[in-house]
Amino acid sequence: MVVNLLGSGIGKYIFFVSRYCGELLRFFRVTLSTGSYVCTCSEFPSTGESKDGVQTPKLSGNWKGDRSKLEGAKASSSFLRRAKMAQSVRADSQSLKDEQVQTGRPGSQNGQSVPSQMVNGNGRSKEDSSKAWKEEITRMLGGKEGNWSDSQWLQAQIDKRCVDNMRMLVVDSVNTAKAGHPGLPLGMAEVGYVLWRHTMKYNPKNPNWFNRDRFVLSAGHGCLLQYITLHLSGYDSVQIEDLKQLCQIGSRTPGHPENVTTDGIEVTTGPLGQGVANAVGLALAEKHLAARFNKDDAVIVDHRTFCIMGDGCAMEGIANEAASLAGNMKLNKLTVIYDDNHNTIDGPTSLTFSEDVGKRFEALGWNRIVIDDIYHDISSFKNAVLTEAAKSDKPTFIQVKSRIGRESVKEDTAKAHHGTFDEEDVKHMHKNLHWEDREPFYVIPQVYEEFTNHANHGVAEEEEWNKSLEDYSRKYPNEAREFKQLISGQLPDNWEEALPQFSADEKIDATRGYSEKCLNAVSKVLPGLIGGSADLASSNKVYMSDFPDFSPDTPEGRNVRYGIREHAMAGISNGIALHNSGLIPIAATFLIFSDYMKNAMRLSALSEAGVIYILTHDSIGLGEDGPTHQPVEQLVGLRAIPGMYVLRPADANEVVGAYKVAISRRHEPTVLSLSRQKVSANIAGSSPEGVLKGGYVVSDNTDSNGLPELILIGTGTELALCEAAAENLRHDGKKVRVVSLVCWQLFDQQSEEYREKILPSKVEKRISVEAGSPLGWREYVGSKGKVLAVYTFGCSGAYTEVFKKYGFTAENITKVAQELLAEA
Ligand SMILES: Cc1ncc(C[n+]2csc(CCOP(=O)(O)OP(=O)(O)O)c2C)c(N)n1
Ligand SMILES: [Mg+2]
User: What class of enzyme is it (predicted)?
Assistant: First the structure.
């Protein structure tokens, strides 16, 4: 009927109204954006007070270059994420209902595409929208007559015009920023469009709704694609003004997507390949929670995970590692879309790369679909993503044969990867797309409607999900309690009481052994703990023995067997953490192999993912395996990562404290650096509470008012050696303090007064003792102190012999101390 109306002569009047409505809307957007930018039209969301009462950062005035405002926006965005996460269980159903009335949105259709001509959006009548589309499509066709009675044809034209508009926003954004990466967003605009307009389940009004589909842009340089889709679908976090601020300091549209900066971005990406592993982690989290909580008659965990990867991701090992695990684990709700454009920065991929990537994924256990010409047959991709991938029992790899920089004169060449477009090129694109005489950043009003129609659908789905959760809570109150506890992001009350208390007669063990006891104790009270080791479970002592393995048959299992894929393990763990469903990922290997996963560990810190890294065999003290396995510089490298907490506990008491720190820090990653060699469970004076401060006095024979002559500062297994040396020195009448500096980062955060109390500046004779790199220790021992460290690589031998060779004995520490004390 709508189509008939379009064809009939209701006439110029409707065209006139719709046209001028559109122009009016545009007038508001453009005019207001140049001055004090506040989006005013009811259909276009503005920043400010969000529905759940949390203040969102509001960008107003001429904020370009106003660093303080922008950084405030970033900080509160990060805060907002957390606040919203905690509230995501609760839906603001009343305001959803209000909106439903306002938009006249159809009922949920279970994630299926809703043809635009069936619906209207945002208060405009269907007829007005249809007329406006007819006018726009006629323009797109260069005045040619369309086949208006064919609804499929019409939807294809609408799809095409939305994509054209997205491409123009890409061009305007990079040309305004004079920076950025337009090649991928131009080449993959259809993919972004189909995902956000026809496929994904999300509610832009509540970006952290638990059951939303997740999207990861592994080729993070293509971030404009994500910013534009977020903007068009109505996320408060990306206004048109934000697109104008691409890559500027403090903007919500940084050069690569950052989850802590922009609501709607699930994970921070940029280092190629990481995103594929993150997506595997998100899909793994979903599969695990679905298996644990869903019932035949009540489903509360049910979403898909989508990821776009490029040639760079295809080349990086981490993506292959992660894909291999995903294939083995049959993560069938994961869909990876490959931007197969045959170009990278330096030129065509043929320079370096000739394998058939699709076949590789097939060999890894994936379902493979090839899309030959998305530009002329968008429905082939729609069908692949909406239907074929959705019913697959394996993860799906959709290989889209794309053309980088589509529509530019640089199309299909590496030149399109990054950079701006010159005037000629812009003219050429405007002409080809019939976009002449339009202002930069112009958005056709109906394009917003298209996206909003779909996003509104997500609003309804969230409402339905809330009802399902209520129903579930009635039928399965115990499971519901656990589920809600988990997704609230809060730890259960008093969980710390489950940690063991180690008595003085505890059997001597390595710190990895004490860790095993702690892990198994807390696994009983922390339903979110999940993870495992990269094929070293028995060496790392990381296995939760009360729970099964996570496997295709038992996805409810909490022990993940990562295989020998350290890098992917860390990237997957980031994905699990950023699923934001209360899961606490654990990733374990030898400390030496932290180098294999370093970039993903760095991203844990950057993206505030509270991954717990359990890294054992933490010094040359591991002995026989020799220098290839003996870490030296790893500790200092990890300590150098901003936001990473590296704990090197000395005994069982300190391992307990390290667990308290690691588990309670849900938005910061931690490293538990643990030994292979055995140490006493209870060094006199050690304590879990001391660990919470990062550094504390373990022993001191100085009178209460006096100062020691010497301070020995130790970490890990070397603390016991410090204690033994201190005893020797005290025997000779010396006043000696022993300090455990178990976590530099925590100690550095203490008040100056506290730090001065522990390491009084007047005591200049200090010795640090750590079987690792000397780098960084000078800060704690001062210019007059001594650093007992490993200055070269280790060697193979019995651990006691190796320690002796490198000076890590009580005798040598005593000797070094005596020399220092003898100095003037
Ligand atoms: C691990 C890593 N190495 C290098 C880079 C730098 N880099 C960014 S994009 C890119 C080329 C990527 O090619 P492709 O994925 O095909 O993207 P396209 O050029 O097709 O957009 C490189 C080398 C990076 N971001 N991450
Ligand atoms: Mg490429």
Answer: transferase
pLDDT tens per residue across span 459-505: 999 999 999 999 999 999 999 999 999 999 999 999 999 999 999 88
pLDDT at 704: 86
* 720 and 574 fall within a common domain: no
Identify whether residues 673 and 761 lie together within a single domain: no
Q: Is the CB of 446 under 6 A from ligand 1?
A: no
CB hemisphere CA count around 542 (13 angstroms)? 30
Dist. CA 345 → ligand 1 center (Å): 7
Instruction: Indicate whether 236 and 364 sit together in one domain.
Output: yes
Nearest to 469 by CA among 635, 738, 289, 618: 289
Q: According to the model, what pLDDT value does residue 824 have?
A: 86
Is 567 one of the annotated binding-site residues? no
Alpha helices in 734-806 (DSSP H): 744-748, 752-758, 778-781, 799-805
Question: Annotated binding residue at 629?
Answer: yes
Same domain, 203 and 331: yes
Question: In terms of residue numbers, what domain contains 377?
Answer: 2-461
pLDDT of residue 213: 98
Residue whose CA is at the smallest distance from ligand 1 atom 21: 184
227 assigned to some structural domain: yes
Structural domain count of the chain: 3
**pLDDT-derived band at 32, boundaries 50, 70, 90:** very low
Assign 3-class secondary structure to 217-263: ECCHHHHHHHHHHHHHCCCCCCCHHHHCCCCCCCCCCCCCCCCCCCC
What is the pairing mode between strands 529-533 and 584-590? Answer: parallel
Does 544 have pLDDT greater than 50? yes
Same domain assignment for residues 510 and 411 = no
Write the CATH number for 384: 3.40.50.970
What is the predicted pLDDT for the residue at 807? 98
End-of-domain residue from the set 461, 478, 505: 461
Respond yes or no: is residue 423 known to be catalytic: no
- Token pair for residue 605? 């810190």
Backbone angles phi, psi at 57, to 5 degrees: -65, 135
Q: Is 166 in the pocket of ligand 1 (CB under 6 A)?
A: no
| Selected catalytic residue, list 258, 463, 566, 770 | 566
Q: Are residues 277 and 362 in the same domain?
A: yes
Q: Is 343 in the pocket of ligand 1 (CB under 6 A)?
A: yes
Q: What is the DSSP letter of 356?
A: -
The overall average pLDDT reported for the chain is 87
Asked if residue 528 and residue 414 are part of one domain, the reply reads no
In a shared domain, residues 442 and 519: no
Measure the CA–CA gap between 537 and 560, rounded to whole angstroms. 10
Distance (angstroms) between ligand 1 centre and the Cα of 340 equals: 13
- Residue 500 belongs to some domain of the structure: yes
Q: For 751-801, how does the pLDDT look when each residue is reduced to its tens digit (9 = 90+)?
A: 999 999 999 999 999 999 999 999 999 999 999 999 999 999 999 999 999
Tell me which ligand sits closest to the C-alpha of residue 255: 1
Domain assignment present for residue 399? The answer is: yes
Question: Tens of pLDDT along 730-759?
Answer: 999 999 999 999 999 999 999 999 999 999
In a domain, 222, yes or no: yes
Task: Compute, in angstroms, the gap from residue 230 CA to the centroid of ligand 1.
Answer: 23
